[in-house]
């Protein structure tokens, strides 16, 4: 028959074991996975001096204007209705020293998972840009709203890019207005880029 001292010792050991288990820093409890395949940028600006916003898809970061390690660049957007087109450019051809290729495809960002059949990625050129400058018509990457005199990214167009590092990405601008105003007017602050990047598997 156990003595009272022995019983208290057993209880104490059990409590110590439970406390140690609850504080164990080597717990095998799974942590939330970190998504390194996609990224979203909001309210990103460039200015009238730099003129461009340089984006590295491989690192999913905005890089210094003096760096050659960029894949896509977005232009400074003038206020007050002066902007009629947005020449998004790739680092290749007449626009840069890189080997970046791309194509605009029909399809929402969420549903594009590969290069559609028949689509060929090509280098960029100021005389024949990968991203169309037209803001009217079925090929427009940005659509001009005649009623409000504003520009909106087409939700049905996605830019596919093969980066300097040889990886495939999809790229989409979701707004160019401050805080992604859903119903912008000519008075809404412009030049605030909201865009998405995601890796493709092929």
Brief summary of the model shown:
The protein has about 200 residues and is mainly beta.
What does this protein look like?
By secondary structure, the protein is mainly beta. It is 9% helix and 30% strand. It has one helix and eleven strands; from the N terminus they run αβββββββββββ. It has one helix at 4-22, and strands at residues 38-44, 52-56, 61-63, 72-75, 89-90, 101-106, 142-145, 150-153, 157-162, 168-177, 190-199. The strands form three sheets. A five-stranded antiparallel beta sheet has the order 1-11-10-9-6, with no helix packed on it. A hairpin with a 5-residue loop joins β9 and β10 (168-177). The longest helix has 19 residues, at 4-22. The model is unreliable at 4-35 (pLDDT under 50).
Biggest β-sheet description: 5 strands, antiparallel
**How do the SSEs run, as a string of H and E?**
HEEEEEEEEEEE
Helix content: under 10%
Estimate the global geometry from the Cα principal axes: globular
Radius of gyration over all CA atoms, rounded: 26 Å
Cα distance spanning the termini: 72 Å
Strand content: 25-35%
Across the major sheet, the strand order is 1-11-10-9-6
Poorly predicted spans: 4-35
Structure classification:
mainly beta
Mean pLDDT: 83
Number of helices: 1
List how many beta strands DSSP finds.
Answer: 11
């Amino acid at each position: 028959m156990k003595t009272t001292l022995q019983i208290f010792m057993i209880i104490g050991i059990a409590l110590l074991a439970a406390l140690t288990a609850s504080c164990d820093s080597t717990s095998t409890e799974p942590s939330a996975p970190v998504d390194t395949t996609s990224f979203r940028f909001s309210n990103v600006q460039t200015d009238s001096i730099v003129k461009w916003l340089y984006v590295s898809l491989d690192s999913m970061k905005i890089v210094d204007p003096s760096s050659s390690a960029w894949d896509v660049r977005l232009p400074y957007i003038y206020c007050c209705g002066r902007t009629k087109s947005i020449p998004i450019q790739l680092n290749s051809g007449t626009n840069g020293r890189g080997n970046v290729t791309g194509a605009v495809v029909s399809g929402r960002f969420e549903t594009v998972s590969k290069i559609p059949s028949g689509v060929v990625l090509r280098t960029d050129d100021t005389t024949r840009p990968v991203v169309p400058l037209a803001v009217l018509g079925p090929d427009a990457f940005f659509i001009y709203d005649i009623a409000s005199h504003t520009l909106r990214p087409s939700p049905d167009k996605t830019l596919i890019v093969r980066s300097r590092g040889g990886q495939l990405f999809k790229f989409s601008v979701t707004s160019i207005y401050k805080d992604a105003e859903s119903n912008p007017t000519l008075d809404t602050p412009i030049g605030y880029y909201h865009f998405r990047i995601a890796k493709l598997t092929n």
